[in-house]
Amino acid sequence: MMRGLLAGWWARPAVRWRAAAGVAVIGTALAVLGVFTGRWGVVILAIVLLGIAAALGPARIRR
Questions:
Q1: Quick one: DSSP state of residue 57?
Q2: Contact between 50 and 32 (Cβ < 8 Å)
Q3: Distance CA 56, CA 42 (A)
Q4: Which of 4, 43, 53, 61 has the fewest C-beta atoms under 10 angstroms from its C-beta?
Q5: What is the pTM of this model?
Q6: Does residue 63 carry a pLDDT above 60?
């Protein structure tokens, strides 16, 4: 039952948009921090987070 509730909640575009936006903001902040400090591992982590944010977006809902 809990899985159905979570799936229904996650299927709403507003929820997915907020989650994607939050992950994208964190990824962008890490990218800026990584470039300015010269820590390339942080930049790679930021790129991965931005890719995850793109996959979380509401356009990815498939029925």
A1: S
A2: no
A3: 21
A4: 4
A5: 0.78
A6: no
In the structure encoding, which two tokens stand for residue 57, read together? 């977006």
For 49, phi then psi, to 5°, come to -65, -40
Angle at which helix 13-37 crosses helix 40-56, to 10 degrees, equals: 170
- Name which residue leads in pLDDT, 60 or 16: 16
pLDDT in tens, 1-11: 566 777 777 77
Which residue's entry shows tokens 């977006």? 57
- Cα dihedral: 50, 52, 57, 61 (round 10): 160
**Virtual CA dihedral for 12, 14, 17, 23, nearest 10 degrees?**
-90
Structure tokens, 15 = 């929820």
